[in-house]
């Protein structure tokens, strides 16, 4: 959500910021709505002041036996005008808020301009893609050959874009999630949370999935929403709160199932388990002081990178361009992991700083200053630490053997009772 005062103060700058998102100028329409709303409120207050004056005059007149009918008639007329102005102000306020809610966040100045992912900038890379003396297979072929990845069975149960994992491969997925949570809580200072998988309208509005991205979500018959990521419940724990400055930053993490309709992904990544309706992900969320959110963004991204480094998975960090940065983000780093079966890098984590954009939507604030009297919006950040299903895919493809087995990365072996390799049962 945007600060209307900033738009009033410099509409041209706001329009320039929206132009980087490929959007037309909006400040004139926003300011006009706001001006009309404020005029209605002012007129209502003026009429209220006049009614108060009339009440005094009527009281005085009745005490001396004067005829107050005209004064009372004026007061009645003013009441009707006030009700109409109140309704107009409420309508204009709703229209203004809806207009602001539909506009994306202002991008940081160092976000490069560009129409799509081809303009993203590689900032670093880590690890070398493995060299095989055979043609590497994609994860779906590997999993089905092992008898541990069942797409047909999942389709029978739920339809397309679901997967059933069996045996050691299911254990490997579980081990990945446990490893990530242990790393983030024991070494990176995040507090583990167990959160609801169902949330209300206010929660998904607060993290900017509503109203723009409703079609990307699953909604239950009682009006709740299945979470697309634990970002939604974790970030909203600060909703409506005024936090103590000394309590910042909040660093929270959760391993949850995530649910996405993939409405905008028709025909993309239909094979395998790269793009699923249900998947597991470890989410990282920070609620930070505005002065430290840039450093927190870098810290969060490094936490996600260390997951990949511990797993020995080659990756690169990309700074997303204006056309590829998400609706609520001011700046995003994507981590892309190497997939030998596809011969390319694919996204496995996005770490974003939304600055005060989400905090305004959910009214998340903190007390600042030496006396604690000043109140300001926090900054919120979120990142994948990382997507468990995609990490499973990356491990399978990078650690595959010529015989079709999967070598278990050393860091995961304690979670699998020392199992060093997954192979097809004899």
Give a topology summary.
Elements: H1 4-9, H2 11-19, H3 27-63, H4 69-101, E1 121-126, H5 139-146, E2 149-150, H6 151-158, E3 164-165, H7 167-186, E4 191-192, E5 198-199, H8 201-206, E6 225-226, H9 231-236, E7 242-244, E8 250-259, E9 278-288, H10 293-311, E10 315-319, E11 331-339, E12 344-353, H11 357-362, E13 365-368, E14 374-377, E15 379-387, H12 388-398, E16 406-407, E17 421-422
Helix pairs in contact: 3-4, 7-12
Describe the structure.
40% of the residues lie in helices and 20% in strands. With 426 residues, it is an alpha+beta fold. It has 2 domains: 4-101, Helix Hairpins; 117-422, 2-Layer Sandwich (BirA Bifunctional Protein, domain 2), CATH 3.30.930. The strands form 5 sheets. It has an 8-stranded mixed β-sheet with strand order 1-10-11-12-15-9-8-4. It has a 3-stranded mixed β-sheet with strand order 7-13-14, with no helix packed on it. β13 and β14 form a beta hairpin. α3 (27-63) packs antiparallel against α4 and α7 (167-186) packs across α12.
Structural category is alpha+beta
- Count helical runs: 12
Give the distance, in angstroms, between the N- and C-terminal Cα atoms.
58 Å
User: Could you list the spans in which at least 5 consecutive residues all have pLDDT below 50?
Assistant: none
**Beta strands, count:** 17
- What is the C-level CATH assignment of the largest domain? Alpha Beta
CATH architecture of the largest domain: 2-Layer Sandwich
What's the alpha carbon Rg, rounded to whole Å? 28 Å
